[in-house]
Amino acid sequence: MQYAKLPGLTWDGTIYHNSDMGTLEALLPTGGYPTAHAPAMLELPNGDLLCCWFAGTYEGSADIHIICSILPKNSPAWLPTVDISGDSTRSEQNPSLFYGPDHAVWAMYTAQLDRQEGKDNMQYTAMVRCQKSTDGGKTWGPYETVFPEEGTFCRQPIQILSNGRWIFGNWLCTDSKDGLSDDPSVFRISDDEGKTWRMVMMPKSNGHVHPNVVELENGHLVAFMRNREAHRIHRSESFDWGETWSKPAPTPLPNNNSSISALRLQSGRIAIAYNPTCTPNPQSGKAAWPGLRCPVAVALSEDGGLTFPIVRWMERGEGFIGDENKTNNRQYEYPYLMQSVDGALHLAYASHTRAGVKYVRFTEQDVLGEKRERVGLYNPTAAQSR
């Protein structure tokens, strides 16, 4: 079937077929907010998709809050956004979505105090809250503070291990000159479905944050982390269900001190979405901010995340290469990667320098470069071409 050529994506959630990339793409509705950042997604039992992110004037300001859009199963467009949170005294950030045993959607996010004069970063005041939806993301109940310890930050959703244990990757932000360089990764562990939690520290993980937990086999876990030195994605291992962890070690993948997203695919491969850029001369223990958050790539590993021989750029941005051209590229950052029951991969990230959130749907075969029919990826009659 032939589709009309359209000029490009629009901020209304309409899904288009990108014939060049072989992907399906959409710019999600913005809700009228000037900035959007840190998206997360979830597939519901009925096949609907949810995407949430934080929106408002500027990260760290008290008007920043969590909003959500729904993609009904087989729909050609994402729906207008709804508000999840709204504490006028705190900046609510870094949401994640989890389908709980109570058949409710849990939105977990951080809530930090508003900006203060002379303080650029109030993350050391953050706590983790949870709000729930029992109607598939249309409406949300009041918040509950789950982790009141100040400085607690999160990004990856709660992971359920094969023995039923819950593990939730966090990091601890401090109020110090080198706070961002010194923040360690920790894990919250629950063996009673979230009724009680205890904390496990990752040794020598200062400056390694945003841990993404992946279970390779029963009790054998790996965590992939953002590196504040902006050099490499780092990896740590646990062989006892997350009770103890190894010192983080660098992987071959570059990291620009920006968030990553890792998961184990149905095929058994590890997939990581990230910005494939880094600072060439990292300084040990010192946070770096190269500012180059373009393009967005997905890398695949067949050895538990030790090597990544397959990498594909899923977002090319404006297409300029090299540090000298970075001002010609807009920012495409904080990717979130998930796989739905049908095997399709779903990628969301802050797009066009946080103007909104972009959504991309593709398959593992698209990353591998294998030729295949577009079966099970999406109903092409519901998508337009561009």
TrEMBL record:
UniProt xrefs under Gene3D superfamilies: 2.120.10.10
Pfam assignment, any one: BNR_2
InterPro entries: Sialidase, Sialidase_sf
Domain Sialidase: 47-347
Protein name per UniProt: Expressed protein
Originating species: Acetonema longum DSM 6540
